[in-house]
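#structure-requests
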Amino acid sequence: KANMPSDTPHRPTCEYGRQKAALERTLLALSPQGAVLRITKIAETLLPLLSRWRRQLLEGRGVHPFSDLRCAPLRLADAVRCLVKIAEMQAEGVIHCGGERDITYLEICRLLAAHLGVSRHLVQETTAAASGVALSAMPQHTTLGMTGFAERFGFVPAALDTTLSELFAGLDRA
């Protein structure tokens, strides 16, 4: 489900998810006044992949991004800002901070190709399954519900286009 509210019961589908859910329960049991911050994919963790794609695209070589793998990229600066706000406000409970919307890796690669001004035909769609990559979880939605976030914390994480533009500009400068 997209934009999952923070009070939705856990339904982990893989070991990693089960471990995260157990850790949350443990932390909140140890300190009921504590906070757990759930975040979506930190955008900057995409940089090695984007750098490889950029190099291949500029060399005129095809890339094969997955159309069945999604993320909701969140700038590291926004995650840190949220952590600072949580500490300053002594916020409690489960808090969501995430990227604006889901996007497939295929879409990200197509946007990178357009940014670079290279042929979109170099971006050759594939899937994880077709590539022989076995992922423990491939959710259809990775966004988190953030109803009331702006009012509570006084900011909204950057829009997806801003996040990707910043990543692409960083690649250009590297």
